[in-house]
Automatic annotation (TrEMBL):
Residues 1-24 are annotated as: Disordered. Reaction proceeds by a ping-pong mechanism involving intermediate methylation of a conserved cysteine residue. It is found in: Cytoplasm. The gene is rlmN. It comes from Pseudonocardia humida. HAMAP family: RNA_methyltr_RlmN. NCBIfam families: rRNA_mod_RlmN. Its main location: cytoplasm. The keyword S-adenosyl-L-methionine applies. It catalyses: adenosine(37) in tRNA + 2 reduced [2Fe-2S]-[ferredoxin] + 2 S-adenosyl-L-methionine = 2-methyladenosine(37) in tRNA + 5'-deoxyadenosine + L-methionine + 2 oxidized [2Fe-2S]-[ferredoxin] + S-adenosyl-L-homocysteine; adenosine(2503) in 23S rRNA + 2 reduced [2Fe-2S]-[ferredoxin] + 2 S-adenosyl-L-methionine = 2-methyladenosine(2503) in 23S rRNA + 5'-deoxyadenosine + L-methionine + 2 oxidized [2Fe-2S]-[ferredoxin] + S-adenosyl-L-homocysteine. This is Probable dual-specificity RNA methyltransferase RlmN. Residues 116-359 form the Radical SAM core domain. The keyword Repressor does not apply.
Amino acid sequence: MTAQPSTLPLVFDAPRRTPTPRHLADLDPADRRAEVAALGLPGFRADQLARHYFARLTADLDAMTDLPAPAREALGALLPPLVTPVLEQACDDGTTRKTLWKGHDGARAESVLMGYPDRATVCISSQAGCGMACPFCATGQGGLQRNLSTGEIVEQVRQAAAAARDGALGAPARLSNVVFMGMGEPLANYKRVVAALRRITEPAPDGLGISARGVTVSTVGLVPAIDKLAAEGLPVTLAVSLHTPDDELRDTLVPVNNRWNVAEVLDATRRYAQTTGRRVSIEYALIRDVNDHPWRAALLAKLLRQRVGTKRVHVNLIPLNPTPGSEWDASPRPVQDEFVRIVQDAGVACTVRDTRGREIAAACGQLAAQG
């Protein structure tokens, strides 16, 4: 496959649109108290409101009976409706639930809530669409609409946490894991994503109280942003969407490779692991006859040993979920098994991701295309 020149802009940002309404989740505790004071209310009302939203997982003002009616009416300004479910689908005996959300301006984004025997996980979006242009990704095929606000990101998590608590996956469950692997490139929406990470991980009533070790942020390899994230003091897991170890192919599969090549991405991966003490996940979507060759498995393991270190990295193979009309297809099981064997025999941890929701358009961007 011949690499094509990059068409990505130098600044990975979304086009400007109608501003998203300011929301409680956009604000840190000090800003919340200032906003509440501006509404003519005492500062402690901000803490009460935050306790309802982050600890009790509700945005229903009528349920906040410890607040006087006039205060509830005023505080409604801090809880504008940000994301509305347009389409919801379930499969895997109800343990996988995918939601298509509509923003205030009609922008669409997706999240997937998944239940496992030992945990509940939500996969969320950070952008409506994506500008990274990876050709095998449904979201990349649709292009970038806009960045999601911090509030829109946090709302996906809060609503998932409330749904899991209320038995949406069968038995009531506590949301314990959040993965930024939905629509969009999280590090291209850096400021809002980092603010959302703080809201997600800070203890109630300042945040949702989910352990940073249960949060994973994916990236195609925006090297400066990886280094910046490492310095934030947020020990979240980094997942790097590598998809091939050689630059010639990666220039095509992940066009941002024309800006930061494989070696630069892996060096940033090592620095992140060293700074945070967290093992990094290398995401690798296996595509039939494209990137599933034994020599690529061997090269992948060699580069990870040399540039990252076997104790700092784990390879997460992803059976490709083909999109309608796509030329891309998943690798056969024997090819997948051989790829795993080669990487593991070289001393690098390698597993295959559990595949969920194929029958409900689970590849990110598919539901938005249908809806």
